[in-house]
Specification:
homotetramer, mainly alpha
């Protein structure tokens, strides 16, 4: 895997940090922090979330999808279609 | 404004909902929820965050930037450059 | 497949239309068309390009990657890593 | 300006290079180039297009929008709303 995949504990740790960033954003808005600084924090939070998404996708492809492809052509295609829909959605988000 | 701008309370309400979504993501990872469902939630969270970003940018342009432009050419240019940097960053996130 | 995949001829047809859009952009810049209208055309061209990218990715997963996964675990992993790198790049572009 | 803005001739030069990239993509598809290599070229073309978009937006803000803001509050707001719509569209493309 290309370095996106991490352990379950690491994902939760990362998501907890993201939760902290979102709470920080509430504080920033509440205290009237300068808009541009809030936007910087939003970009950084979004990037962190998308890295988590890429990690989960990487794992999904290396496990679920690979297993399905090994099982049968039909199962493989279904999992790949489902993954493509998720990829297209991530790309637009 | 094009409908992005909302009150401070609304921003905080939205960010609280996003915080809830991120906590939901932790639970999903912890409970071993199906990857694709987690990815759907990540896309939705990212979209919500970016909407908050667009709202703040909208307000920033309609207030800070407009005021600066009215003050002096130099002040206006500085604020616009700063906004452009934030826009480019949001676009890549 | 989720409807992204099309024939080679269709890809080329789409890319020719995109080439026409890019030539249209040159004309617009040259004639001093209103910036916002040029930006609308840029968004539409970028979207069209990304759809071509999703289509090619879809095919790649359903053919190359599936074949590699069926061949051996190592071959499958290599193709999946490579695909993940491309997905991450598309996501940031 | 933050370095996005360039002269009209430079924009056209850049767009011509992008047109060349799109023609290259047609050749790649036609010759059956490896999918991942085509996707790399698509990412690079999309990035180049978005840089042109950021440049035009930068200029638009520094000229049209600034002039409108100096003219009247109403004119300024209209231009800013219009710019926000374009920014939101670029962000999703």
């Amino acid at each position: 895997m290309v370095g996106y995949s991490i352990t379950k504990e690491d994902y939760i740790k990362r998501l907890r940090r993201i939760e902290g960033q979102v709470r920080g954003l509430q504080r920033m808005v509440d205290e009237g922090t300068y808009c541009i600084d809030i936007l910087t924090q939003i970009s950084s939070t979004t990037n962190a979330l998308q890295k988590v998404g890429l990690g989960l996708l990487d794992e999904h492809l290396h496990h679920c999808v690979k297993t399905a492809v090994s099982e049968s052509d039909k199962a493989g295609n279904e999992k790949l279609d489902e993954a493509m829909t998720a990829i297209a959605r991530l790309m637009k988000s």
